[in-house]
Amino acid sequence: MIPTEFTKRYYSIGEAAAIFELNTSALRFWEKEFPELKPKKSEAGARKYSTKDMELLRKIHFLVKEKGFTLEGARQKLKHAPEDSVNIEDLVRRLQNVKAELDQLAKTIKTLP
């Protein structure tokens, strides 16, 4: 599950890919498709994703992987109504957390005598 907060100052491309369950090549491709996604690069060329970049990746991931948007559709949604995608994403995340808590509660109840 994708964390609700990103606590590190920078994430490597490998860490970001693992968090979003993507290939590093997908992240590099998204950088080309979403001009606002611009991770810093070290002198050696290693990408360093800031918390702002990670939040943008979360929005893109939600729209593309969970809502089924095309990359063009996600780009348009972020450009014209970014607040809508954030509110929906936040609601879905909260509901997933509630579901996980209810599942845990159900398991606990089943173990009671």
Describe this structure in words.
There is one protein chain. With 113 residues, the protein is mainly alpha-helical. It has 5 helices and 3 strands; from the N terminus they run βααββααα. A hairpin with a 5-residue loop joins strand 2 and strand 3. It has a 3-stranded antiparallel sheet with strand order 1-3-2. The mean pLDDT is 88. The chain has a single domain (10-111), classed as Multidrug-efflux Transporter Regulator, Chain: A, Domain 2 (Orthogonal Bundle), CATH 1.10.1660. The chain has helices at residues 13-20, 24-33, 51-66, 71-80, 82-111; strands spanning 10-12, 40-41, 47-50.
Strand and helix map with partners:
Blueprint: E1 10-12, H1 13-20, H2 24-33, E2 40-41, E3 47-50, H3 51-66, H4 71-80, H5 82-111
Antiparallel strand pairs: 1-3, 2-3
Helix pairs in contact: 3-4, 4-5
Which stretches are poorly predicted, pLDDT < 50 over at least 5 residues? none
Termini separation: 32 Å
Q: Based on DSSP secondary structure assignment, what is the total number of beta strands?
A: 3
* CATH structural fold name: Multidrug-efflux Transporter Regulator, Chain: A, Domain 2
Average predicted local confidence, pLDDT: 88
Helix content: 55-70%
Largest sheet: 3 strands, antiparallel
Write down the overall geometry: globular
By helix and strand content, what is the structural category?
A: mainly alpha
Strand content: 5-15%
Radius of gyration: 17 Å
Quickly count the domains: 1
